[in-house]
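Slack export, channel: ligand-projects

TW: morning all. Re-posting the request from yesterday since it got buried. We need the structure predicted with the small molecule present, not the apo form. The ligand is 2-oxoglutaric acid; the SMILES is in the block with the sequence. No rush, but it would help planning for next week.
GE: picking it up
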Amino acid sequence: NWCFPELQKPMAVLNKFHTLNDSLWDSSYAGLALRQSSALPDGLHERVQSALITLQRCGCLLRDLVRVRDRDVFTAVSRALVGQPGYTYRYLNTRLFTIPWHCEGEEGQKDEKEKPCCDSDLRDQEKEKKEEEEEDSGQGCSHSSPPSSTPPPDVAGLVQFNMTLINYMDPTAMTQLKEEPYYGMGKMAVGWHHDENLVPLSPVAVYSYSCPAEPKNEEKETETEEKACWRVGLKVAWDIHTPGLALPLQSGDCYYMTDDLNQTHQHCVLAGDTARFSSTHRVVQCCTGTLDYIQKRCSEALENLHTDPEKNTKSLKSLLPSTLQHIEDIHNEVEFEWLRQYWFQGRRYARFCSWWTKPMEQMEKDWKEMERMVRVMEFSNSCISAKYCPILTNHTSMESLFIQLCRPLYSSL
Ligand SMILES: O=C(O)CCC(=O)C(=O)O
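GE: finished. pasting the full token output, ligand included:
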């Protein structure tokens, strides 16, 4: 029951043998909707398309290294994630960090020299993406974002997308695009998949911009040759008997996957002949994927640290194995889910946008502190397992011995 204005049923040829009649539509593809380019407000195309081109010219669109069936591969499409400041998106074992979008009049984060976090050109483009998102959801910028773990309200059909994953591919620069394997639909820019980590039943809204063909010299005077258009492919998941759908997309068209379509179906992107951008607006499940969340986790772990302001020494408040296990879990989460992902993928964007730089430096410091705490934990555990050690066996209270041993040890590490 998401309300998108002026949507149309796609009129699409499915494959060589089937056309999309009403009964197949109702039974198999009812959650898909198309909004043709001409139904979008005047002026929007020009602004959005120039924003996409600027992102690409600034070098913001990069291929991601992802894990598919136990292999590390680069995506054929180049991507950038733009969205709510401090949000991340995890797909195919990779965490992407948002280039923050900014609302009109909003101050935004500044760096030490009080400069805005993003390059000014880029900042304008991010505002553009934010405005496009408002067009897609049919609402203004005045709503504050919903709690990241709860579905957005469906009252009055409003959707608060929290990010957009932008894709770009020029098929003329690609040598090895895979063939669509089930229906013979042609070359795929993105293979069959479900979008991961979305709030259940939330819609995905996609703006598609196919760049005009660059005329070859000899074509200048004559008519340019007809170019194959880009299409989005859909199929029922785990089913290759129901005809698959290949929906042609003209430049500027939007398509929407609503209700449970993303769960019940897979989609792919079928390459046309010219370069193409898409902006895929999502409501991502972010309960463990925001900077706010992970900073709170770091504070939880560091609460176990007592600092003596006079001696300027640090010690652990509790040496209980359960506390230390909790710290080790947070330490691992910070290292594997955030720092490594940032060093690997997120830091690439620091050239254009400094938003993540300071918080990630602080996170690295917190991680080092946790590392020291965990080393003490390992030491205390090794004392427990050294049950034949004469010093320990003579003591009645193991706990008090550990406290004596480990507290000063922490400060000397
Ligand atoms: O480009 C599109 O139309 C969709 C892209 C897509 O499926 C994705 O980014 O997951």
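GE: first-pass observations. Residues 300-412 form a domain with the Methane Monooxygenase Hydroxylase; Chain G, domain 1 fold (CATH 1.20.58.1470). The chain has two domains: 13-282, 300-412.
TW: perfect, thank you
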